[in-house]
């Protein structure tokens, strides 16, 4: 099953009939920040094509592109004014087709972001909808009258005392202190419209059959252009209680986008899923949903049931928000194991994205970011990487006067530094749209890290190759390695085993593949207990190529992980 590449790294894939999205490692690209080729300081589609070879070399399997559609950019592309075109800032539809062709030529799948909860207020649908209460598009959005006196409203029409309900929108705005109401008054038609995010992002009304059909057409548009799947923005926002009732007061300060979990979303998702499943051309088209809700069990609900599937994958954000702590992570992993297995749902794992501080910044050191890479790529489920984590990037420091994002997320969106030149491989004449991340001028660039085999970039590469080459890591079962004494909340290391077995008729085992993954979350060394047998280091976060540390060519019984060290171990074959 394994071949060996020129660099000595096994090059073959673990193939065992699983759908591609279960075996894949997905790499998220935020197009604005990836690479600029036309000199305006903003990344573009041609910049993505330019670095596809880097991604092939790295060893990821699929790309998720954050929005590149036409947009006034109030929320940097998550405010879409044309779902079926590329914003000129990023290029053209021809550029997109070229990107898909080039990605597919490298065996990279392409997943595009799809933003169905809201459009831009500049979308022709909304422009029409707000033109008159009688416009045919009016009910493609959610409009309400002033809150009446009987319902506790007070003040002149359109004044704050008349806001239809107590829901809050998601963003405080640059320099703002409070979450604003999720409603904006439209003077001309004297009604309020709902927006879970900015006023420039009016919520679409998925109860309207015309809107549903139009949005489904946009899915078909992109499938016809060859995309392999969709990342569904604010999945949990689609269905809403049509009464749009007030939240209980205890929850009323929390943005409704973090709470809305209405059962009406599920039949909508099942309908979307059937659109993907009915698409005639292989391969299977995939939907991964952003379900930004506080509980893992809530994200699980959006997979649907075997007889009526919804999402293929759902982002589970509680682990991303967990601290770098063994007990906290053990609890997160246990919850996924206990809940997902019985439901037949395939988990996903993610540590960073364009909405949260990078995990390198949250966890506080490169050593921990390296250990976290082993954790992420050693878990059972589909991992999602965020561009730049393979470089160990930290968030940029963005001074208050330079902030541009109404949600305060500028730091994690800093441009990717590709090389050690003054413009770091970006073609801009001036400065990029956000400052460079720390250390971009001190060697933390793709080219420079690639020249250093001990770098975090090589660690990611070795981990991705190890995962690709090992059926156990790619899709094997998960079980904790029992420790002696049993695990306690004092333990600072977690050790688990991944096993992949192929049985033949009659119950004989045809082949077994096994890996052990161990992560020391502590800043002191930690003793771990290994499963029976002899083991060797395949990848260590400290020594990426796995060269056994002095004196440990073969491991048996117990072993001591260094501070912040995480490893993948494979059975030692005689
Ligand atoms: C979630 C996206 O990830 C985020 O960037 C965006 O601001 C909101 N949804 C609204 O679309």
Plain-language structure description:
- The structure is a single chain.
- By secondary structure, this protein is α/β, with parallel strands linked by helices.
- It has 16 helices and 21 strands.
- It has helices spanning 20-23, 31-34, 45-50, 52-58, 93-105, 124-129, 209-224, 265-277, 296-301, 317-321, 326-343, 359-363, 366-378, 446-450, 456-469, 471-475, and strands at residues 26-29, 62-65, 69-70, 82-86, 109-114, 143-144, 183-186, 191-194, 229-232, 286-289, 304-305, 308-309, 313-314, 348-350, 382-386, 477-480, 493-503, 509-520, 526-540, 555-561, 566-571.
- It has an 8-stranded parallel sheet with strand order 13-10-9-5-2-1-15-14.
- α13 packs parallel to α15.
- Residues 75, 78, 115, 197, 233-234, 290, 354-355, 407 line the site of 1-deoxynojirimycin (NOJ).
List the helices and strands and how they pair.
Layout: H1 20-23, E1 26-29, H2 31-34, H3 45-50, H4 52-58, E2 62-65, E3 69-70, E4 82-86, H5 93-105, E5 109-114, H6 124-129, E6 143-144, E7 183-186, E8 191-194, H7 209-224, E9 229-232, H8 265-277, E10 286-289, H9 296-301, E11 304-305, E12 308-309, E13 313-314, H10 317-321, H11 326-343, E14 348-350, H12 359-363, H13 366-378, E15 382-386, H14 446-450, H15 456-469, H16 471-475, E16 477-480, E17 493-503, E18 509-520, E19 526-540, E20 555-561, E21 566-571
Parallel strand pairs: 1-2, 1-15, 2-5, 5-9, 9-10, 10-13, 14-15
Antiparallel strand pairs: 3-4, 6-8, 7-8, 11-12, 16-17, 17-18, 18-21, 19-20, 19-21
Helix pairs in contact: 13-15
Bound molecules: 1-deoxynojirimycin.
1-deoxynojirimycin is lined by residues 75, 78, 115, 197, 233-234, 290, 354-355, 407.
